[in-house]
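Record type: monomer structure entry
Structure origin: computed from sequence
Chain ID: A
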Amino acid sequence: MKCLLCESYSLSHICSSCQELFLTPKIYKRKIINNIEVISFYKYSEIKELLHTKHTDLGYYIYTILAKNSFALFAQSFTYDSVVSAIGVDDKIDSGYSHTAILSKHLQSKNIQTLYNKLRAKNSISYAGKSRAFRLLNPRDFEVKEFSNENVILVDDIITTGFTLNQSIKAMQQKNKNVLFCLTLADVSLK
């Protein structure tokens, strides 16, 4: 097959040279509700076209590459005094896979236990491309299913306004869960 970025022949959808050149993550931080930190690995503008594959068959492979280059590396260096749970925001299967489940899966390590199907939106409305006003008028209404760990890392692919993560944090706190921080692939606010 050909690399999606440089069109060289490759065994992967994005060749190792392009992964090293274009997909080397950096750490970007911003704070949202209750001063909780959101750590992102890319500027949205840098990987926008790759992120837009998420609702296609190709998206599975692209998100796996992005997760290996960012989330898996983060997990290798993460330490904590107890095991924490990685929870994908609304990790239901859509288009044959869940993009937040792929990201969460790559956090699995000696200090991070990935859990699935623990944070689901009761309102399945999509926020993609919608205004802040629309998001405020249409909350996702998250439901948290039972799990034992108290400490949580929330996982999503993109942070735009922070509204989805804020709702997720509130839902976790209502179940007495401690959100340590959130991880996203990309932050739209970065220029």
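Annotation 1: Strands lie at 28-31, 37-43, 84-88, 112-115, 119-121, 142-144, 151-159, 178-187.
Annotation 2: Residues 25-187 form a domain with the Rossmann fold fold (CATH 3.40.50).
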